[in-house]
Design goal:
Helix content: 10-25%
Largest sheet: 5 strands, antiparallel
Number of domains: 1
Strand order of the largest sheet: 1-2-3-4-5
Oligomer: single chain
Strand content: 35-45%
Order of helices and strands: EEEEEH
Radius of gyration: 13 Å
Length: about 100
């Protein structure tokens, strides 16, 4: 998601009054408080963009949102083709929001 910085200026982002905070553990076992800052849908699948709450300079991460009943889950995107497509779409959305 290069090219998208979240500098506290929320214009163009879908932010709820209530923050959706998730604790993610990275490859080194360190926990990060991540905030969902944007969601979008493509080809019938929803995706969420999360940013590190304590490191605004860090790049965001994108997860697929899957629903089971009334519950929603964030799922890693493991397919390279899906990942490239989703990142490309998100970068287009981010560029349009900046204009």
């Amino acid at each position: 998601m290069s090219g998208h910085q979240h500098d506290g200026n929320d214009i163009g982002h879908e932010h709820d009054e209530e923050e959706h905070v998730f604790i993610l553990t990275d490859e080194e076992g360190q926990e990060h408080e991540m905030v969902m800052v944007y969601t979008f849908e493509t080809e019938g699948t929803a995706y969420a963009v999360l940013l590190d709450r304590n490191d605004i300079e860090a790049e965001g991460v994108i997860f697929r949102i899957e629903e089971e009943g009334e519950e929603a889950y964030l799922v890693n995107i493991e397919d390279d083709e899906e990942w490239e497509r989703v990142v490309s779409i998100y970068n287009q959305i981010a560029e349009e929001q900046e204009e």
